[in-house]
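ok posting inputs for the zinc ion job
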Amino acid sequence: MTAPRPNSHWLVTDEPHRLGSGWLSGTIGAVLGLAALSAAGSLRWPQLLTLPELRPHLPPWLATAALVTAVLAFVLGTVSLWLRRKKTLGAIAVGAAVAALPLLASAPDLPTANAGGALGLGLDVFCVQLIVYSVLFVPLERLWPLRDQPTFRAEWWTDLAWFASSALLVQVTTFLVLTPGQALAAALPNWWREHLAAWPLPVQFVGIVVVSDLVQYWVHRASHTLPWLWRFHAIHHGAEAMDWLAGSRLHVVDAVLTRALVFAALMTLGFAPAAIGAYLVFVAAQATFVHANVRWRLRWLEPWLVTPRFHHWHHASAVQNVNFAVHLPWLDRLFGSHHLPAHDWPPHYGLAGGQRGPRGFWRQLLTLPGTERRGAAITFRTTTPP
Ligand SMILES: [Zn+2]
Ligand SMILES: [Zn+2]
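and the output
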């Protein structure tokens, strides 16, 4: 009798994750390797791969840090290649580390690196975000997992491609997001804006959360209702596994439209840039957290702030068109779309009726699903009050 064959997918494997299995060394090595390669690329081609705003702030120690990171990634990757039957993680770690070295060796000195054009891809943004989010969320998902699924689960690379594309294109999307709001704010009278901008920052922050979520709620609900919007938003709902990375699967049209309308509202009302900046950190952290594969109930928070369980129900394949809010669940109570069973988590995620959207980043970006809405009729469900 032969031993059961491990899952044959090139990345997903049934091999154990325990210490000594080469998983931890491979995972840390792969993340460090990709970080070193991103840093090396940013140093080698700063005018192409870094944002003009961040370019002058590339620290002088970045080259040394990237070199140390690459060496660590190489060592950890080699350990993983030695211990693990599936070589993908080790190969990524060693490959990225080796690829980073010639880039670092041929990178210009920093004074030259600080020069450059006004356009650039946000590889530096990608690098920083990947490290920060991995450090914050991967340990949470390993320590308190809702579902027993590997960190590198099926379609992980698809979602990483969405994550990378949003970071790399951040300059273009920021321009598209801010321009309508700037034009609108310039065209409208501004007698109230100086009053609003003088409010205490915490008050402005709360105001921004409420205004943003009112806009987000209705744009999101429209995205589920209007066929031409749904074809873009359906990409987000094609995800069949929830984790911190799954929320990145957001079609660029969907993301830009929602954010442009939110910013148009915020800029027209005239909130201070510092308060908007604090909100951006908050929304990035919360939007990532609510997709995480973390079993925390946060019962005391559920009525007031969107939690993972609330948003996981938005992704449930069996229940459609509920829980549209991004921050404030009581908006769904107010508008009749709230669905939160007393204890359960949804059994499955994805599109209704077993439909499967296009697979892979490029197909999702370019081949949009049919314009039909899922389900024939729109039914908005409410929970019975506790
Ligand atoms: Zn949705
Ligand atoms: Zn989501």
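notes: Residues 1-8, 371-386 have pLDDT under 50 and may be disordered. The radius of gyration is 22 Å.
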